[in-house]
């Protein structure tokens, strides 16, 4: 069974940091590009970041550039998102995802809340 499990979310003050993790199973993780998307309450999903299968080509949405860093450890089947300088507007459920066999796969998400 193809599965993605996110963790690492929580409540943090503005300016703080969090590191999200996404553990993959059921497929050959190192063969697939991976993405992070987020969805705030009452809003549509928005793409945050992506990384190629080899981990050499990260890409970021403009609103997180310079603050977030995506990375992966293919030996551990794990995707990461280091989030620094968090802002109120970063509050959302964060999901990792990929496409396996043409089907979009997404985890259950991890909640990030930025509040003072």
Range of helix content: under 10%
Separation, N- and C-terminal Cα atoms: 40 Å
Task: Please report the number of helical segments.
Answer: 0
What is the rounded Rg? 13 Å
Based on secondary structure, the structural category is mainly beta
Largest sheet data: 7 strands, mixed
| Rounded mean pLDDT score | 97
Output the helix-strand order: EEEEEEEEEEE
Strand content: over 45%
> Which of globular, elongated, flat, extended, rod-shaped describes the shape?
globular
Low-confidence segments: none
Q: How would you describe this protein?
A:
The protein is an all-beta fold and 116 residues long. Helix content is 0%, strand content 53%. The chain is built from no helices and eleven strands.
Keywords:
116 residues, mainly beta, 11 strands
Note the topology.
Blueprint lengths: L2 E5 L2 E3 L5 E8 L8 E6 L6 E6 L6 E3 L7 E6 L4 E6 L8 E9 L2 E4 L3 E5 L2
Parallel strand pairs: 2-11
Antiparallel strand pairs: 1-3, 3-8, 4-5, 4-9, 5-6, 7-8, 9-10, 9-11
Could you give a short description of this structure?
The chain has no helices and 11 strands. By secondary structure, it is mainly beta.
């Amino acid at each position: 069974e193809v599965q993605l499990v996110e963790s690492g979310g929580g409540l943090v003050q503005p300016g703080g940091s969090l590191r999200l993790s996404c553990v993959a199973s059921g497929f050959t993780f190192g063969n697939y590009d991976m993405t992070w998307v987020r969805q705030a309450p009452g809003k549509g999903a928005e793409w945050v970041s992506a990384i190629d299968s080899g981990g050499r080509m990260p890409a970021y949405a403009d609103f997180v550039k310079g603050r977030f860093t995506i990375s992966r450890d293919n030996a551990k089947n794990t995707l990461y998102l280091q989030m620094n300088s968090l802002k109120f507007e970063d509050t959302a459920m964060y999901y990792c995802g990929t496409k396996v066999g043409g089907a979009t796969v997404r985890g259950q998400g991890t909640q990030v809340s930025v509040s003072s």
